[in-house]
Specification:
Length: 150
Amino acid sequence: MKKTGSIVYYFALLTALSLFLTGCPKKHVPDTGDNMLVGRWQLDDIRISGISLSINDCIRRSSMEFDSDHRARASFFTVYESTHQCTLHLRHEGEWTYENGTFYIIVRVKNGETLDPPERKQVYILDDRHIYTHGDIDGYDALLYFHKVE
């Protein structure tokens, strides 16, 4: 009888252990390397000289997309005072590269016009869900912060 009790004990222990292990959420493992940038990134914040600008829901629709074929697209929205409507203000197209551990966007087309030479901007990785890059806002060098949505 003692043998049966120990078998039941070990069976109960193994069952509890397996339930514990399968019931625990899996820890998010961050992507590394050049696949980290692939996806859609939505604007979170704009900072000029360290000060966050007040941005509305329309401006927050702005996003950047990076695909696995190294194509890059960015769409920036704004509300014009004259119409008070959310409007696509600026569209960039080009590609992205990963060189020596650093990401770059090469903007080749801006609002339908080909840039010669293209613009090259570095993308800074904060973590696997947040990035930022530099942008020009009314002549000021701004930091544009994005979070990953896809």
